């Protein structure tokens, strides 16, 4: 809007006031057009210059107001409304009774140091400095603003006062822009310039949070009955709002600037070579189960590369701590919160190598890649997981016979009923579900009649250990019931996970 900065020579209005740019001239003229007695009223109540424009003008709130200093705005408003020029001490430096300094670009920082900016670009420079401290890489941002509820309440009170006093004026009825939206209008362009970034509904957000000092929060709670009275007055249609209601002197708000990056996701497949590594971090009564977890071995290597705050691990299905995950690996996602940078494919390959070449070889990773902020495709792939193949070392109470081998491998598409296993009842609800054992093959172990290798392919979600031992009759039929003797799994490996056949 303020791109054309050359003043047109013929225009005499306001030149004597030192108007150099077109935006100055526009604001100056807007000030002249405001309803003068309400401007005078609001200024004397302690409403700031930009709030006066916001509450009195019928024009859309203009970003030009950002580039004109508060003291200049005040002199124009005083001139336009023939208000007595207030002494400089009590006017511009006073915190606005409505916006509490937000639209005056006045705030305290975390260390209670007061910052006052003349115009939007000064303010944007301060915010930019705080944003840069967070160390994010970004080329676009979304801006969010939050203000204390006191601001909203003060605004209601002032609007009520105006409506009562200037009922017949057209401008009173028009919709007013809120303090937080007004701040966005004022500072968005200056922020884009100082951050060198676009503004859009980006995955990176800058949040400007204004809050009151703790003293005032307490103070505000003491005036609850005042607020109640105000509400009652409002309901009764009373317009008795008086200047007394606005005597309170406020301190500037505390501004905190937070940056937040939407979670980013990485996908891959993992292998678990150890029978003493859980899938996720597993701590019972402060004691770690297993020597490590897949979650930590992978996430712990990715997080530092993203300079993120934290991560979450999501896998397509799970296996028990003592079950290895082999074959083509199990798909997983790593979700990283508030990442400051995104590692290149090259550095992801290095992370993969680091995990795969670690000394203990507990887990392995392949196909590690960045998949952006959208993880749904990957999750769907996980849901489409249909079949799993296992290799189980099985022990039975009687010697294995040749006819057992034939009868087991002749069972194709065997339907079984499984009640939720006793061992997981504490975390899963009790259900009975039908599952399918697609096929089984027995591999004899030389010199052993009680032990054999069982290769089986089942529907995802089948409890394999329970299928073999029967879980006290809760899974039926079971390997035990088929062979007519006790059967147990000694060791189990997942050898393949097959996705949907689509
Ligand atoms: Zn204000």
Automatic annotation (TrEMBL):
The residue ranges flagged as biased composition, category Polar residues, are: 10-20
Q: Which residues form the Pus10 N-terminal eukaryotes domain?
A: 96-218
What class does this enzyme belong to in the EC scheme?
isomerase
Kindly indicate whether the keyword tRNA processing belongs to this entry.
yes
Gene3D superfamilies named in the record: 3.30.70.2510, 3.30.70.3190
Q: Where is this region: Disordered?
A: 1-20, 215-243
By what name is this protein known?
Answer: tRNA pseudouridine(55) synthase
């Amino acid at each position: 809007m303020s791109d054309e900065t050359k003043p047109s020579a013929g225009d005499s209005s306001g030149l004597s006031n030192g108007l150099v740019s077109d935006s100055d001239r526009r604001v100056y003229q807007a000030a002249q057009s405001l309803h003068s007695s309400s401007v005078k009223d609001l200024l004397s109540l302690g409403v700031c210059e930009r709030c006066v424009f916001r509450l009195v003008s019928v024009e859309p709130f203009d970003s030009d107001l950002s580039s004109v200093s508060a003291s200049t705005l005040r002199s124009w408003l005083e001139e336009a409304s023939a208000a007595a020029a207030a002494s400089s001490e009590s006017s511009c430096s006073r915190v606005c009774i409505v916006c509490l300094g937000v639209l005056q670009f006045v705030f305290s920082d975390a260390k209670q140091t007061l910052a006052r900016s003349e115009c939007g670009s000064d303010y944007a420079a301060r915010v930019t400095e705080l944003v840069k401290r967070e160390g994010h890489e970004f080329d676009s941002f979304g801006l969010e603003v939050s203000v204390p509820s006191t601001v909203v309440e003060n605004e209601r009170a002032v609007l009520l006062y105006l409506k009562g006093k200037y009922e017949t004026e057209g401008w009173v009825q028009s919709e007013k822009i809120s303090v937080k939206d007004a701040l966005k209008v004022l500072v968005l362009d200056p922020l884009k310039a100082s951050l060198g970034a676009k503004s859009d509904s980006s995955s990176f957000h800058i949040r400007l949070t204004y809050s009151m000092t703790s003293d005032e929060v307490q103070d505000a709670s003491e005036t609850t009955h005042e607020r109640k009275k105000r509400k009652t007055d409002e309901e009764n249609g009373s317009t008795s709002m008086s200047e007394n209601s606005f005597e309170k002197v406020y301190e500037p708000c505390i501004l905190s600037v937070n940056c937040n990056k939407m979670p980013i996701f990485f996908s891959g497949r993992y292998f678990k070579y150890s029978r003493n590594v859980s899938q996720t971090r597993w701590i019972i009564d402060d004691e770690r189960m297993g020597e490590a977890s897949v979650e930590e071995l992978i996430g712990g290597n990715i997080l530092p590369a993203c300079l993120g705050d934290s991560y979450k691990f999501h896998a397509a299905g799970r296996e028990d701590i003592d079950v290895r995950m082999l074959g083509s690996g199990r798909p997983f996602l790593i979700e990283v919160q508030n990442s400051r940078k995104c590692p290149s494919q090259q550095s992801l390959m290095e992370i993969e190598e680091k995990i795969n070449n670690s000394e203990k070889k507990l887990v392995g990773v392949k196909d590690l890649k960045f998949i952006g902020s959208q993880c749904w495709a990957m999750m769907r792939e996980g849901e489409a997981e249909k079949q799993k193949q296992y290799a189980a070392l099985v022990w039975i109470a009687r010697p294995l016979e040749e006819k057992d081998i034939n009868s087991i491998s002749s069972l194709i598409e065997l339907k079984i009923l499984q009640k939720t296993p006793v061992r997981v009842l504490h975390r899963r609800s009790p259900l009975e579900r039908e599952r399918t054992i697609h096929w089984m093959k027995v591999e004899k172990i030389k010199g052993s009649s009680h032990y054999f290798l069982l290769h089986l392919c089942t529907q995802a979600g089948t409890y394999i250990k329970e299928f073999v031992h029967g879980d006290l009759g809760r899974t039926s039929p079971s390997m035990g019931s088929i062979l007519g003797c006790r059967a147990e799994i000694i060791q189990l490996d997942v050898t393949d996970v097959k996705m949907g056949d689509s």
